[in-house]
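Anyone have C-alpha cells for Cell division protein DIVIC? Sequence:
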Amino acid sequence: MREKRELNVAMLQQTNEPGQEVKAEMRQRRKRGLIRRLAAFGIMAVTCIAIMASALVSQSIAINKKLEEKKQLETKLENLKEEEKDLKAEIIKLKDEEYITKLARKDYFLSDEGEVIFNIPGNEQ
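Reply: yep, here.
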C-alpha cells in the first residue's frame, strides 16, 4: 500500500503581538470617531440648509404680500388722481357765475324776483 509521506511544512503560528491588538482597537476608535464627526457635520449641514430654506420661503411670502399691496396702492393712486382731476374741474366750474346760478336754481330752488320754478321729475337738464 501506500506509504505516508511526511511533508516538511512549517506551521505558521499566529503570533498576537501586544501592539497589534492595540493598533486594531485604535483603528476602530478612529473609524467610530470619523463616523461620529461626519454624522454631526451632516446634521449641522441639514439644519443650516433647513434654516436657510425657511428664511427664503418667509422672505418670498413677504415679497409677494408687498407686491400685492403695491398693486392695490397703485390702483388707489390712479383713482385718487382721477378724483383730483374731477375736483379741479369742479373748482373751475364753481368759479363760473353761470354755473353757480344754474346749480342754485336746480338744487336749492332759488329764483329771481317774480319767477316761479316748477320741478318736473325725470327732466334733468
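The chain has a mean pLDDT of 87.
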